Amino acid sequence: MQLEKFYIITGNIYWSGGRIGTSKETVEIAATTENPIIRHPITGLPYIPGSSLKGKIRSLLELSTEKERIANLKQKIEEIKKEEPSGNDRKHKEWKEKLRRLENYLNSIKNGEPCGCGLESCQICRAFGPHKNVEHKLGPSRLIFRDAKLATKEDINGIENLPEPKYTLEDIKKYSTERGLHYAEIKSENIINRYTGRASDPRQMERVIDGSLFKMEVVVRVFEGDEGSGSKKPEDNPNVKILKKGIKLLEKDYLGGSGTRGYGKVKFYGMKIDGNPWENF
């Protein structure tokens, strides 16, 4: 499988009160609450793990294509059933094992697990990798998600329509020093009894400061024979297209925990492919 080229997609994530948690022991440098966010172990600066961004985008794409993927798997299973070889020899055992695997992948999708079908027609598996499928023939995952670090003023220079408030690395360091923060905000929460109105279970949750900006990067690998590999326009690549769809879904959803109660709204700005503006983003 010949690697032909890479597309480098960059941009800035505007994250409102986001929270990706970790254990207190792993961030002892900054564990100001029992519920800390993930930080760099040396600097204490918050960041967005590439795994979190990839996992959330993948899950939203899978939820939006579940019926289609189930239908494709069922069709493939029926095709395999018609190919049953006669006898009880090695070929029949291989056929039976292939059928068993496909049925397991179908059941795993129905149970809410990541897609692992590995079918040629499955763009999810091709872009993100087939989950727990070591028998697939799709080659390496096409999308590589980097950790997103706090953006600098230089990173956002020239980007229009950024909302307020907005905070870069320089801003957050400055305000944290002035106000005794540690690059994050503390949000107090509790549970209100529906009958008595009394509060219970008080807790403090650490969140990224509302309006923080993060510099993101996703690499798209293009291999010989991939759909769209002959095109000179990155926007024609199906893995670029599915990434765009996933980002748009994410902007309507949330990134991190507690998103149904105000945490983690995201918006992407200044999106580029290989340093050029992403057309029609």
UniProtKB/TrEMBL annotation:
One Pfam family per UniProt:
RAMPs
Keyword line: Antiviral defense, Coiled coil, Endonuclease, Hydrolase, Nuclease, RNA-binding
Q: What are the protein's GO molecular function terms?
A: endonuclease activity; hydrolase activity; RNA binding
Parts forming coiled coils:
63-112
CRISPR type III-associated protein domain span? 32-267
Q: Which superkingdom? A: Bacteria
Query: What biological-process GO terms show up in the record?
Result: defense response to virus
Give the NCBIfam families listed for this entry.
cas7_TM1809
The similarity comment for this entry is: Belongs to the CRISPR-associated Csm3 family.
Please give the name of this protein: CRISPR system Cms endoribonuclease Csm3
The scientific name of the source species is Desulfofervidus auxilii
